[in-house]
Amino acid sequence: MWPGILLLILVVGGALVGITLSALHTNDTTTTRQEAYAQRKADSEKISGGASGSGSDLVSDDGAVGNPKSYPDMGCELPDYQSKNGRIVAVSANGTEVPVDIKGINWFGMETGTAIPLGLWDNAENGTTAYQIASFLADNKFNAVRLPLCVNWILTNKAPESSLINTAENRAISVKNYMSLLKSIVKVLAYRKIGVLLSMHTLTSTDSGSLWYSDDISEDDFLDAIDTLTKNLCSEKYWNIMGIDVKNEPSKATWGDGSSKDFHAGAKKIANRMLDGCSNWMGFVEGINADHSVTIDGTKYDYYDWYGGGLQDAADYPLTFATDNKVVYAPHYYTPAVYPQAYFYDGGTQGSNGAIADYVEIDDSTLKSRIKATMADMFGFLADDNSSALLLGEFGGLYSKDKHPELTTQRCTDLSMEVIVESGWAGGFVWSLNPESAYQFNPADTYGTFTEGILEDDWLTANSDFLKGMTALNDLANLRSMPCFEVEESSSGSESSSSS
């Protein structure tokens, strides 16, 4: 009897062990298949047509790849961002200094009525996610994003148009209100060590603001919006914010005349208010607009400043803030797609709408000489004393869609980047990531509406020609990811080391 019972126990026990091992194997196989599926799904959602290699994908506790519920704490200090010796420099608490040149891009939408950065609808036909945009930018060596904002939305903390964001595929993106959305976008970019420049872009969703105040938004309102940004965002959680572009394209402003429209005084007041709330940030300042003339190779050219581009009067009235090493000059410079300036061509007749009939395109050498000379006249001289950093807050235009027979608009973008690199400036922010970016001339004799961005209309595919053109900025001497000065606790306090 007993031997039979022992045999039965052995048989049953062996069977149970076999079942358990089989179940474990099945579970492991299922888990492996689920992980493989999740990775294939994530890979299929990547923006195609660019480089790859931004690092491993973020995997959530539920197995989702590239769609985190939240982003991990990076453990980075908020650096003291400084502008000195012609460079942007991130300075750690222990004094470590890392210069960073900017290969930047504008990503617009939060300044509009939708109150969201566009492209995040991610449906069966088009749209993408914030995670994929950040990965794409890092893969292609973009290390900073300029985010246009709306002053009124900052003040009212407007709820964004949540129907235009696929929250199931953007789980870490908050659509509760304007500030929570902004915070979550900054965190996505921080995960890929991409810096952020906050642009005070529009006063309201229907008024871009030719000054930093209007009948609807007072100067005090504007300064309150600055306070809101510093109170909410000046912390280690948002360590990648470099500062604020204090007002986009103040086209009706003056410079240094002491009037109520004096942007020299206005920019200083706004930046000092920012520094009161966040001494770690920098103030980025654009130019104004006026008629000018410049003589190039013996020929006089009349021109009107690009919106945000006129800093001629800064020669006599340079900027200083209450804190040293915080001024960044950030003018705009564009191409014939925005307006066909006479200096881009030889000959032709300019009509009332700005189009140039019978325009004559010029060779690369001549075109570059004129771009360099006009940049020097507008703002380039500010880099001569090698003090405050100079970069382009906006530049670009149509690229692969340029209809000039000799691609003058495309060449203007290419040559602008050559001047940036060769002159040793601190970089620039191309306009823009968005395929909705609109321009008025294509080619110089044709007025209309023409769109193009770094991404194609589906937001899923890179504009390969434009993206390839942007590799010219890869030659910036100090191009690198935003440095993360890791906070390390020690018995004597906190120390930091740079990880970039």
TrEMBL record:
GO terms for biological process: cellulose catabolic process. Keywords: Carbohydrate metabolism, Cellulose degradation, Glycosidase, Hydrolase, Polysaccharide degradation, Signal. Coiled coil: none annotated. Residues 54-64 have a biased composition (Low complexity). InterPro entries: GH, Glyco_hydro_5. It holds the Pfam family Cellulase. The keyword Signal applies. GO terms for molecular function: hydrolase activity, hydrolyzing O-glycosyl compounds. The keyword Heme does not apply. Residues 1-22 form the signal peptide. It comes from the Eukaryota. Residues 31-64 are annotated as: Disordered. Gene3D superfamilies: Glycosidases (3.20.20.80). Residues 95-435 form the Glycoside hydrolase family domain. Belongs to the glycosyl hydrolase 5 (cellulase A) family. This is Unnamed protein product. The lineage of its organism: Eukaryota, Sar, Stramenopiles, Oomycota, Peronosporomycetes.
